[in-house]
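cron nightly-structures :: item 1 of 1
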Amino acid sequence: MDAADDLWVFGYGSLMWRPGFPFLEKVVATLHGHHRALCIYSTVHRGTPEKPGLVMGLDRGGSCRGIAFRVAAERRDETLAYLREREQVTMVYRETRHRIRLVDGRTATAVAYTADRTHKQYAGRLPHEDLLRLVLQGVGISGANPEYVMNTYGHIRELGLKDAALAELVAALGSSPA
């Protein structure tokens, strides 16, 4: 197998800072046609069915800058199995393939997990007050929802990106009682 058989994975939320799989290369990349949004009710990782939290999804329209991970071809199957177990617990994401542009100008086809707008956990666009309430209440098997939001925001900022709505939410989380 050669590098052409390697698997690319596009991370835009927690995969950016906690991929959980071995990789050969980590590169800033842009995916067109979808944007990062806090649009998924989390009932496992960052919430429960009784008290859901919110996590990121790739939603239609715009573009998203994230991290592309290149995985060795011989680790393709185990990496996909890991990602499916992690990302598709409730099937709120669709495993999709997208053309991405790496920051160095190369292009690749990457696996990404996009929001399924027909799924009951798809939250869509919510008002700030609802975002704050849901994030504050969410705690799941992967930890507290505010931690997820702040970590994701921190990594977005490291990429040099601005997200006014997420910045407002992070500021409100910092001033909210735990």
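cron nightly-structures :: done
Helices lie at 14-17, 76-87, 128-137, 145-158, 164-175.
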